[in-house]
Amino acid sequence: MKRFLKEAEVFDSSNVLHYIAEISQFHRIQGSKELPEAVRFIREELRVWGINAELYEEFYDGKSWFLTLKSPIAWDLVHGKVEVLDKTLTTSQSPLVVMAHSPSGKAEGEVVHIVREEDWKNAGGKIVLVGKEWRDAYRKANEAGAVGFIAYREGTGGAIPYIGLFLSADDLEWAKIPAVAIPESLARGIIGKLNAGERVEARIEVEAQINERQVLPILYAEIGKEPFILFTAHICHPKPGANDNASGSAMLIELARVLSRLYDDSFRFGFAFLWIPEYYGTQAFVEKYAELEKYYAVINLDMVAGSEDRAGSTIMLVRTPISRFSIVSGVLEYFLELANGAGKSFSGSPLPQIKLKSYPYEMGSDHDVFNFFGIPSVMPITWPDRFYHSSEDTVEKVSKTSIEIIGKAVLATALALAKATGDELGRFARGYAMKYLGELSMERDTENAEKLVMMGLARDSRFLGIESGHPFERKPWMRWVRKGRVSGELIKDVNENAYEEFKELTRDRKMLVHLHELLMLGELLPKEEAMHALREEFGEVEEEKLERLLALLEEIGVIERL
To answer: How far is 190 from 207, CA to CA, in rounded Å?
Structure first.
């Protein structure tokens, strides 16, 4: 198998760096005109390499639903400005000064810092300063009679944070005040003066254009014949957004270039490539364009260029959930470790260049959607990134080393799955299943996990031409009726009270991971076994909260009992 990493040396990280620099010039907010412009740039680059890509067009209109997600409004930034503490920030310095989807408006007045719920009583006629839960706080600010909204995010230092409102058309009935973002360092200066009893004044100005609709672009290309390994990357996020996610989109271009030259009809897989706006585009693609039976597995590229020295990044591999077990996780893990080797230990073993570790399933990007719909999906990502979602996510912060390690490992994974012999893949499947179950069994029982691994290996075998695993009979206890990311807007659209309970139950982000995996497991196993399998996968889970969330989803029709 190691030979495929050698073949992957044709991957050129310099091309990726070039494309990151180009893509990061676009302010790629969902619903804006520069998002389809960035996609058209990618399509043209693919055409230069002889790759014909199909451009599907849906629309942002603030009304349409893409499975469980409601479209944000069509919105373009014109100009914005904040004046506070003798400092002036404008959108000519960074477009992130204006919160995405903010209405136009001007505000001038006293600043009040919102820390506790009772602080909203003092918001009338003032400009509020808020450091968390910005979307809900923005509505409260409008309802409380505030004249302006200033957001900051802890941990961003002197950078301006990216914070989006993702307003719908219905939201425009109450969303009236301008919303801006400032660096944490400036917010701390304001808070210090307020805590000392001083009065702080600010001026805000936002000019934005809210349109009837804007293109939601979905760019798709195929090389070779089905079944396909599908590579995905989200193209959205604000300027510059170099690591998040110009890097994944750029790496996808390079992978398409290389694989279009390496592919031949002897491969057991062809290759497909998908550039989408995060979540909204993926769910639109699955709902309206995808033929899911064509795909063996998905490798989602998100934030693949973080630097260890500047951004504080490590390389994470997010494995498939156990409900979608596949050796694709193991093959990519194997090649990431090989590609990461550099230097020698005292006895000659390779040492890692960058910290690297594989993790159980985590949510947060487009791999989620394909997992929900039964396609095993993994994600290599560089995390954490101290410049995440900020004006400092610039091209000079990205790492050529990270790009080379991840790019070559992903390419080697594709080549190994497409070209390795059945004996090689069968041996690897047995070894990886033993490793995976061995890791779990060091902490807990694996009775249900073993069954799910065998089911996953049986699916792998159908695609890979090997004999492994066992296709156990599915015994689901529920049906996931409204499949897709379980979103607050979906629940709020049905029942406002249910939304408040959902928000409270899922404050800890891992609850959403456990909930979605439980839904996937629930379509495979009886309820008690599904819960046991969840504990085997993640260890401790909050069963009482999960039971309440399941009841809530049943009440509003997201799931139904069988």
So the answer is: 24
- CA dihedral 99→104→107→111, nearest 10 degrees, is -20
Question: How far is it, in rounded angstroms, from Cα 83 to Cα 462?
Answer: 62
Regarding pTM above 0.85, the answer is yes
Q: How confident is the model at residue 349 (pLDDT cuts 50, 70, 90)?
A: confident
H or E segment and range at residue 276: strand 270-276
Q: List Cβ neighbours of 250 (8 Å cut-off, separation of 6 or more).
A: 15, 16, 17, 18, 19, 20, 22, 23
Q: Is 215 helix (H, G, I), strand (E, B) or coil?
A: strand
* Mean pLDDT within 256-260: 98
CA dist 214 and 373 (Å) reads 27
Residues 6+ apart with CB under 8 A from 27: 34, 77, 95, 238, 239
Mean confidence (pLDDT) of the chain: 97
294 — pLDDT class (breaks 50, 70, 90): very high
Q: CB neighbours of 50 closer than 8 A, spacing ≥ 6?
A: 260
Instruction: Enter the tokens of residue 138.
Output: 């923005």
Would you list the DSSP string of 277-297? -TTHHHHHHHHHT--GGGEEE
pLDDT for 252 equals 98
Look up residue 424 and give its two tokens: 């090689």
Tens digits of residue pLDDT in 281-290: 999 999 999 9
What's the chain's Rg over C-alpha atoms? 24
Asked whether the predicted pLDDT for residue 167 surpasses 90, the reply is yes
What does the block give as tokens for 280? 């909204």
pLDDT level of residue 344 (50, 70, 90 thresholds): confident
What beta strand segments (E) does 49-123 contain? Answer: 53-60, 65-66, 69-70, 74-84, 87-90, 105-113
- Residue whose C-alpha is closest to residue 27's, from 141, 150, 221, 162: 162
Q: Identify the pLDDT of residue 343.
A: 73
Q: Beta partners for 175? A: none
Q: How many CA atoms does the CB half-sphere of 435 hold within 13 Å? A: 15
User: Cβ–Cβ contacts within 10 Å for residue 194, how many?
Assistant: 16
> What are the φ and ψ backbone dihedral angles of 359, each rounded to 5 degrees?
-130, 155
Computed from CA positions of residues 361, 367, 373, 375, in that sequence, does the dihedral angle turn out positive or negative? negative
Q: How far apart, in whole angstroms, are the C-alpha atoms of residue 403 and residue 409?
A: 10
User: Cα-flanking dihedrals φ and ψ of residue 420, to 5°?
Assistant: -60, 155
Please report, rounded to a whole number, the percentage of residues in the chain having pLDDT higher than 90: 97
307 neighbors 397 (Cβ within 8 angstroms): yes
Cα dihedral 246, 249, 251, 252 in deg (nearest 10): 180
Given this model, what pLDDT does residue 350 score?
Answer: 83
Q: What is the C-alpha separation between 110 and 446, in angstroms, rounded?
A: 59
pLDDT of residue 507: 92
Closest CA to 528 of 510, 512, 546, 516: 546
* Residues linked to residue 215 through DSSP beta bridges, in sequence order: 59
Distance CA 468, CA 346 (A): 39
Cα dihedral: 52, 56, 60, 61 (round 10) = 140
**Phi, psi angle pair for 450, to nearest 5°:** -60, -40
The Cα 23–Cα 234 span in angstroms is 12
